[in-house]
Fold:
Amino acid sequence: MNTKRLYWWLIPLFGLGALTCTREYIDDLQGVCFERDVLPIFQSNCTQSGCHNSQDRESGYDLSSYNGIMAGGITPGNYKASKIYKVLVTPFGRMPQSPFSRLTDEQITTIAVWIEDGALNEVCPIDTSCNVTGVSFSGSVRPILQLYCNGCHSGSNPEGGINYSTYNGVKANVDNGSLLGSIQHLSAYVAMPKNANKLSPCNINIIKAWIDSGAPNN
Structure:
């Protein structure tokens, strides 16, 4: 994959209802893979109940799969011409809508790099290594939850009243068993992530190792 340097043009001319230019720079990303890096962003942030999932199809869009995302407005090789990219960065009518949070800069850049490199549905390289030694909340667990869970479970009105954007919110669901039970798809719990594939064995093992170590705020 080619390394891209992407520049976003986001400053509105309020009187004209148009966009003009200033530079917003994000570091280069390499090795972006749809299934591993891009699909979870859409599934976590765009397929909540009543939104762009395969059942509700808000405004006719299903963003829970590659084909649905492509049909939603992707111009391969040109992220700035892609409708989906535009609604992520526009200051007016942006997606996800309030009360859900705007995607992070890194998430938006990941999508832009994927589009710029052809928006391919590639098979991701399999990482056979899974190091669960020295796992931490901030460095190991939080990034997994941010990618796969926080689109629904964060903000002022998180789904089910479950907020995974803070340590205390996560710890409460560690203590009652629902975090591990839901990602392991145990029968007594609602399988999570919703409208998405089960977390990889490595990600589950990382979260389990952190819980087994006492779920410290480290």
